[in-house]
Amino acid sequence: MSLSPTILPLDFEQTLPDTTSVYHSLFDARLKFARFNPLDPQPIALIDPSLRAALDTRQEPLTQSPIIYILTEITPEAAVEWVQKYTASLATFLHTHQELTTVREWLFTRRRERNREWQHGVFMEVAGSGVLITGHSGIGKSELALELLSRGHRLIADDAPYFVHGNQGIEGHCPENIRDLLEVRGLGIINVRSLFGDNALKSKKNLRLIIELYSADHKNLSAESRLHGERSQLLICNEAIPLFRLPIAPGRNIAVFVETVVRQHNLERSGNEIAWSGLNPHRVDMLASSGHRPLKDVC
């Protein structure tokens, strides 16, 4: 028995989580979508009238790579007739009378809703990079954010930023109900736009680094941590984001430390791997393994 492609209408009312398997694939951010290109087919391919006309002229079979085709600006009857020309493809075909741009916008919106991930912390732009500042309640995240704002950096969201897959990585946003607001112990809720101006705020930013604040206990710091800092990674929207654990203690200017960590991270991303220590890497490894402490504590 020969298999035939599946042909279904595109349902714009489909929402999460109650969706069929084809819509789970449509809303999966790991599956790229784009206007169909036979030379570079994506898992989800959009085909508009002009592209269908070009394919008809060439009379070439569709590739097997896309798992879902979306036919735009077409009637159900015309969609069935057109798909029957390409029975070699066993993909799922969805059809709609809407234009390609409308379908693309709908997909972007639904994917953002599905893949939205919330984090507790303050999300800021520091030295041009998106930085999520985390730590337990009362550690001083909002106070640090206020200090960073006074030093010219910008706030995206306080307390509850959410993250989604963007065009160039993981993108952080602020919920509408807390936009422009920062809660600081002892001051209450302040309006950042009113106090610092429009330039102190940013609507979204790609997440590049997570800085976790914790109470310092230098007795338990290893030589490796003293030389290189405490580094790890955290999964946000299924992507590994670099994490730096920053010990805080009375008398430390944490804003300066955060700026230094972020600028160092920017250098490392640009390929300057040994800028952190300022030492020859072989000497750093030697000192770390021997337990020496070449860097003077500043605390």
List keywords for this structure.
single chain, 299 residues, Rossmann fold, nine-stranded mixed sheet, five-stranded parallel sheet, 16 strands
Describe the structure.
- There is one protein chain.
- By secondary structure, the protein is α/β, with parallel strands linked by helices.
- It folds into two domains: 6-115, no CATH class; 117-290, P-loop containing nucleotide triphosphate hydrolases (Rossmann fold).
- Helices cover 29% and strands 28% of the residues.
- The chain is built from nine helices and 16 strands.
- The longest helix has 16 residues, at 100-115.
- It is elongated, with a radius of gyration of 26 Å.
- The termini are far apart.
- Residues 278-288 and 290-299 have low confidence and may be disordered.
pLDDT averaged residue by residue: 84
Question: Could you say which overall geometry the principal axes of the C-alpha atoms support?
Answer: elongated
- Looking at the overall shape, the CATH architecture of the largest domain is 3-Layer(aba) Sandwich
CATH topology of the largest domain: Rossmann fold
Strand pairing plus helix content: what structural class? alpha/beta
Taking Cα atoms only, what radius of gyration do you get, to the nearest Å? Answer: 26 Å
The helix content, as a percent range, equals 25-40%
The parts where pLDDT drops under 50 for at least 5 residues are: 278-288, 290-299
Helical element count? Answer: 9
Main sheet record: 9 strands, mixed
* Order of helical and strand elements: EHEEHEHEHEEEHEEEEEHEHEEHH
The portion of residues forming beta strands comes to 25-35%
Q: What count of structural domains?
A: 2
CATH class of the largest domain: Alpha Beta
Determine the CATH superfamily of the largest domain. P-loop containing nucleotide triphosphate hydrolases
Count the beta strands.
16
Distance between the termini: 76 Å
